[in-house]
Amino acid sequence: MTLLETDRPTLDLEDIVASAAHALEGAPTLEVIRWAAATFGDRICLTSSMSDAALIHLVSKVKPGIDVLFVDTGYHFAETIGTRDAVEAVYPVNVINVTPSRTVAEQDAALGPRLHGRNPDLCCHLRKVEPLGKALEGYMAWFSGIRRDETSSRRDRKVVEWDRRRGMVKVNPILDWTQEQMDDYMADNGVLVNPLHYDGYPSIGCAPCTSPVAPGEDPRSGRWAGMGKTECGIHL
Predict the structure, then answer these.
(1) Gyration radius of the chain's alpha carbons
(2) What is the pLDDT of residues 9-48, one digit of tens each?
(3) Which of 137, 232, 233, 234 is catalytic?
């Protein structure tokens, strides 16, 4: 029985978030994951861009069988789709392929081709933010793999926070991890990694909006290069 299945149906999730955010700040990653799994049971899922399977590996050790939501935008690299398929085969998780309401061809017919080049915010909203929002409706909480060192907009995030836009709890277990910690964990545990990482893509999104990055450059500089954009909108 989880905390939310007790005789306290009027529990205020925002109160839970405030208390947990304070108590779990700086806590070990697995402790954060155990708290979330015990609190939300089957009403928590995990989202992944299939850049790597570090968070999937961590969460599945505590909660095998967890739903892993992957937003298939129709623009992904073949390597990303391959990583998704490998994750489904290797880890004890339930991969759910989330798709937009329109195919790429249908979007092109309605809004014109290459919307990602003309209006990347709208394209991200239609192909990432909106479909993920609908897929998350059946859950009370979700695990995210964001880290504070990735972008300036993520530096003030909390390990446990209230996702006001979706009316649910967001849990960020690896928020304080550095890239070095990520690399060490993946190497030590044989974690699946998207092969594009080895070809100069430290941050991987949709193929039309992702470029390789030179050694020493900001790892996120290959995302929407030259567009003044750093977030797809999912984590705003």
Answers:
(1) 18
(2) 435 888 889 999 999 999 999 999 999 999 999 999 999 9
(3) 232
Q: 100 with 130: CB under 8 angstroms?
A: yes
| DSSP assignment letter at 155 | T
CA distance 179 to 114: 32
pLDDT digits (tens, 9 = 90+) for 59-70: 999 999 999 999
CB 175 within 8 A of CB 36: no
Count of beta carbons in the 10 Å neighbourhood of residue 87: 21
45 is in an annotated binding site: no
The distance from CA 170 to its chain's CA centroid, rounded to whole angstroms, is 10
- The predicted model scores a pTM of 0.90
CATH of domain 13-199: 3.40.50.620
User: Catalytic site residue 232?
Assistant: yes
Amino acid at 108: D
Determine whether the annotation assigns residue 124 to a binding site. Answer: yes
Six-digit token string for 141: 């909480």
Q: What is the pLDDT of residue 236?
A: 60
Indicate the domain borders of the chain.
13-199
